[in-house]
Automatic annotation (TrEMBL):
SUPFAM superfamilies: Cobalamin (vitamin B12)-binding domain, Methionine synthase domain. SMART domains: B12-binding_2. GO terms for molecular function: cobalamin binding; metal ion binding; methionine synthase activity. Residues 90-220 form the B12-binding domain. Coiled coil: none annotated. This is Cobalamin-binding protein. The keyword Metal-binding applies. InterPro entries: Cbl-bd_cap, Cobalamin-bd, Cobalamin-bd_sf, Met_Synthase/Corrinoid, Meth_synthase_dom, Virulence_F_dom. The keyword Metal-binding applies. GO terms for biological process: homocysteine metabolic process; tetrahydrofolate metabolic process. Keywords: Cobalt, Metal-binding. Residues 1-88 form the B12-binding N-terminal domain.
């Protein structure tokens, strides 16, 4: 019997090679590919999804887990496609980033998490026109079309795709949207069926749209969590926190600070992201994989104070030296 608990743990820790080997071993042992998919891969990724939802894991860690799951999926893919359209799947999701937009890290993450939840996913990539979405829908027959946009200049194109799919044979397909500049208000404005603020709310939304989950609660972006006064009172006066800075190459991007009572994550001001963007483009590290490969946490350090105060102080210091 394969050690599925260990396989789940390897996905959580992002051990791609181990996941790939364990998937191969499970099949060689004669286990059904669906069992390996559900108990080995999907179960592992769902723990990652839950921890991401509760801010225990952050985007870079989830990306690393997603890569590990992808390594296992690559082994199962030929078997999955050999069995034709999977009628027992959770649903069929067609995903793409809209025309003019090359950002795909968030989209890829949503695809991996949706696969992890049992959806059959077709990802048509970045810079996709309404005609390309329609052509892919003709062939793939999705229940949901998911669109991603990261630029205020490209998000408006989502309406073009929605309008283009508001006629037979596409009008039964649910239209979901997401990306950093997107909000529920924008989704309502352009007639989308739903919006997801992050990968785990995206999966909740997709489940709802195929009638397999409850209506998602109003999507809110995770920010600095309000700290209950009871927690503040429990902190000793000489409290010490730990912190780490997230870097892209040697460029800082965000900071996380925690103690026994809570954790805070803060992004640095927009100019830091702009600098990272410019450097990534100059170096040609623009594909999702090449870009994420450069993300890493700096060493763990400590300071006196509360997570909120220390996070604010570090952001201020980095800002003043930039
Ligand atoms: C990485 C990055 C890049 C990389 C992209 C690499 C890649 N292959 O994706 C590179 C360097 C190529 C790049 C280029 C550019 N970028 Co850029 N980039 C970013 C950056 C730093 C991070 C984006 C990201 O990956 N976030 C992490 C992912 C996981 O989050 P996410 O995409 O939001 O996805 C989550 C949710 O939104 C949701 N979601 C996403 N899609 C979907 C879909 C559905 C259906 C659902 C339900 C949910 C959902 O779930 C995801 C997972 O949790 C942001 C800054 C920032 N902090 O956001 C700027 C940023 C988006 N970029 C920006 C800009 C301006 C550009 C450039 C125009 C720069 C330039 N001057 O050339 C170019 C544009 C290229 C183009 N035509 O697209 C601006 C956008 C400003 C604006 N409001 O329009 C930002 C905000 C930086 C800034 N402050 O200036 N960029």
């Amino acid at each position: 019997m394969p050690d599925y608990a260990l396989m789940n743990q390897c996905i959580y820790e992002g051990k791609a090679k181990e996941v790939e080997q364990m998937t191969k071993d499970a099949l060689a042992e004669g286990r059904h590919f669906k069992e390996v998919l559900e108990q080995g891969l999907i179960a592992g990724m769902s723990v990652v999804g839950e921890d991401f939802k509760h801010n225990i894991l952050y985007v870079p860690e989830v990306l690393i887990s997603a890569r590990a799951m992808k390594a296992g999926m690559a082994v199962l893919k030929p078997l999955l496609s050999a069995h034709g359209p999977d009628t027992s799947s959770t649903g069929r999701l067609l995903m793409g980033t809209v025309r003019g937009d090359l950002h795909d890290i968030g989209k890829n993450l949503v695809c991996m998490m949706a696969e992890g939840a049992g959806f059959v996913v077709k990802d048509i990539g970045v810079d996709q026109s309404v005609e390309k979405f329609q052509a892919a829908a003709d062939e793939f027959k999705p229940d949901i079309i998911g669109m991603s946009a990261l630029l205020t200049t490209t998000m408006t194109y989502m309406k073009t795709v929605i309008d283009g799919c508001d006629k037979p044979p596409y009008d039964h397909i649910k239209m979901a949207i997401g990306g950093a500049p997107i909000s529920q208000m924008f989704a309502d404005e352009i007639g989308a069926d739903g919006y997801g603020a992050d990968a785990s709310s995206a999966v909740d939304l997709f489940l709802y749209l195929v009638g397999k989950g409850p209506a998602p609660k109003a999507a809110l972006r995770a920010g600095v969590k309000p700290t209950a006064s009871a927690i503040a009172a429990a902190r000793p006066a000489n409290n010490v926190v730990k912190y780490q800075i997230l870097y892209w190459k040697d460029l800082p991007s965000s900071v996380k600070v925690w103690d026994d009572f809570g954790e805070v994550k803060m992004d640095l001001p927009a100019k830091f992201a702009e600098r990272i963007d410019a450097t990534a483009q100059k170096l040609g590290l623009t594909s999702g994989d090449a870009y994420t490969a450069e993300l890493h946490w700096g060493e763990e350090q400590s300071r006196p104070g509360t997570p909120e105060d220390v996070a604010k102080a570090i952001v201020k210091e980095l800002d003043s030296t930039a």
